[in-house]
Amino acid sequence: MTAQLTTTEEIHPVEPDAVLPRKFVGRSPGQIAWARLKADRTAMVCMVIVGATILVGMFAPVVSWLYGVSPDETFTSLLTGDAVPKGYLGGLSGDHWLGLEPRLGRDLMMQVVYGIRTSLTIAFLAAILSTVLGVVMGVVAGYLGGWVDNVIGWIVDMLLALPFIIFALAAMPAIQAAVYTPREAPSPFFKMVTLVIVFTVFGWVGTARLVRGQVLSLREKEYVEAARAAGAGTMHILFKQLLPNLWAPILVTFSLAVPGFITAEGALGFLTIGIVEPTPDLGRMISQSSNWLSADPMYFMVPAGTLFLLVLTFNLFGDAVRDALDPKTRR
Amino acid sequence: MRRRFAMVALTAMTVVVGMSACTKVEDNGNSATPSKSTQEGGISKDPADSKGPAPEIAGAKKGGTAYILRRNDFSHLDPSRQYSVTAMALGQLYYRTLTTFKDLGNNKLLLVGDLAEDTGKDVKGDCKTWEYKIKKGIKYEDGTEVKAADIAYGVTRMFNDALVGGPTYMMEWLADTPQYTSVFDHAKPENKDKLAPGITVVDDYTVKFDFKKAHCEVPYAFNLPFGVPVPKAKDTGTNYDLAPVSTGPYKITKFTKGSEIILERNTNWDPNTDPIRHAYPDKFHVKLGIATATVTQRLIADVGDDQFAFTSGIDPAQVSSIASNAALQNRIISEITPFMFYMWINNQRVKDLKVRQALNWAIDRDAYIKSLGGDKLGTPGTTLLSPLTIGYEAYDAYPGGPTGNPTKAKELLGGATPELVLAHGDDPDAQTQAVAIKTGLEKAGFKITLVATPADSFLDKIGEKNNPWDLYVSGWAADWPSGASTLPVLWDGRTIKDANNQDYPYFNNDDVNKEFDRINALPDSAAAAKAWAALDKKLMTEFAPCVPLTFDRDYLVYGSKVGGLFESDVLGTVAFVNVHLK
């Protein structure tokens, strides 16, 4: 991270010309955090990239329409007899900006664009669901304590002890078999939902532990005792008194969970227990292309580079959000 | 620190991408040769063909150590338990079979006697009684002579459920049932000194086999390791796998499981009795446990002992880089193998002949071959038999060209858009291949649903009679190059059972079944070969029971000082019998 920037920023928290007129204006913690975030160059660059990838993922069909190639189209005539794209850099051309896949001859850019769509859909859904579940369980366990805390603690311990990959390996086909007959191909959406469920089942425990710890220390604070003395109910204390003070850590875990799930989805794809053909998927592309590293390096570089960039920017952005919300965590 | 790391990573990426940018990939034009039109040869009628020694190879000299690099151990060294082609290729170095193929590589296969003086005598002319005379003077590695009783014992010991892994035709034919150990079980103590049913030792050099039904392909079957002589005194049952006694030009002097096998000269082998083996190198050293990608790179690098090395399988992903490397072109084997791939059509579900024919018109074999990894790994196939089958006739009943003819297929469908389910293994390669097939068929108006099923149970699932799918792809290799070991096995509807089927298309037609019986009983192997080729064409033209996809190809690179390595049309892998070192 940029150590140089940090010090300057702490001396001048806002832009110099804005300092005078706002001298006596009070600012909410949110505004302060946003100002800090805006001053962080890495964060802003990452935010732009993250925003752009989200847009590309959301509007993948529009991109495909503008680009004029669908992700399923195969251009086998542009491959050599050895199934490698003809020309330079894996078949790079005006029609195919990132080249072609060896073997099937599909357009690599459309595969990556739709792959991003798959990755982000799964990662965001899983992050939202697991954060919500984690927060609720964490708050309840931390505030109520006693047997409720014990039971939730057991569940958390059990899930942490369960090997995730093996569970996913066993659960995915079983869930599919329960829903579809052997003659039906599961819709891509169903595969994604299954992955989201599997991720959520395992993903909430981290957030729950974190939130529980925070709640344990917060519930002894004076304002909570005051609320209790004033006769507030449990629900009121949980969601009106405690939750607003938990937003910072929750936001941070959420922003770091997204790249975590992107990697996990990639890993499952790499192990061929995730999304199957013909739905494009970055992890599966990487596992396929690693064999072709010597014959067609671009085939590997494009999906691997995309996944790398995606995870890196999401992580850096998550870090920046944490720094902005709580400058004390900065080293 | 972090920034420096980022710079290093960035530079590395630029270098890798840059390197590939320097070379323009072009179609190198040396695409695989078209499939052979006919396979000549058959069963030798002249005992002179079975005499040794094998004709010298010009320029070959004796001596040196040849290295075989491999990842996996051979499943078995015990001849009776071998079925894998690479194990049998090694087996040719240390054991001999009753009959063997003189494989001249150039479309000519001749079945001759190896241990036997000829290819066997059909005593009564009804294919039910076969007599074999053993050559005199054949010795084990310890110098004792091989007698007819050893051959009889070699077959008999295979009637044992503990000694499985090998082919089972001979036991099933002798016992006249697939459950051959229910008729005779050599594992039972009271059977220890008996011979299996139907086997008679006539004299020291003559052994006779009596079958209940006519089996005209017995001479071919004895090319497989049935009846490889085993000295009864040295038979240690399952432990025989560790130290089989040699009858071939080499004996196993060291065997460390998973690590190495060393074969050295067997001085008791007489080249004058052997029609096919040369034994030029002094020693064969098999090195096991090397990753296939590493084996490939070592053979490309060609350094030190690796110059004398070869393998039987390289990393398919490196094929295109080998093919585009001009320096390697004089040490490459690129040959068709007896293995074939079909897209089976489930005839129980797809009953409309027009739909099956339309599938044959529509198939895009070019895209399928590219999805396999290119034309070094497969050649378009339009017949049910492999071109390496004796008597093979090339034909294309649905000449849609390399990428198929969707227009013709649409005509046949007459505006219908059949919805078919294509099942495939869930491994990434099978997924890729399924996409290639789907894309081609959908151009002709088919609506194809891809269903991924676990790859490890895929063959079991499609072998279930009531499997729910319409289309599925699998491979098949004949055990010997005759139509009898392909057509009836795959298309005889009377063999259909509830599970473990081999007739994956579930094709059953009484006329065709009768034809199978008729050809199987033809004593003249040349006439039978012709009849099989005709039936092959009839099946495809009249019934279109499946879509033949490709004839598999082997693509290999070997060390620069290795000579005489050739792709065996019978084994379906490289044969070692002619290997000599430069």
TrEMBL record, chain A:
Localization, UniProt: Cell membrane
One GO location term (cellular component): plasma membrane
Occurrences of domain ABC transmembrane type-1 (ranges): 116-318
Membrane topology: Multi-pass membrane protein
Keyword list, A-Z: Cell membrane, Membrane, Transmembrane, Transmembrane helix, Transport
Keyword Magnesium recorded: no
Broad class of the protein's primary localization: membrane
TM regions (residue ranges): 44-67, 120-144, 151-172, 192-211, 246-276, 298-321
Pfam family, one: BPD_transp_1
The family this protein is said to belong to: Belongs to the binding-protein-dependent transport system permease family.
Descriptive protein name: Peptide ABC transporter permease
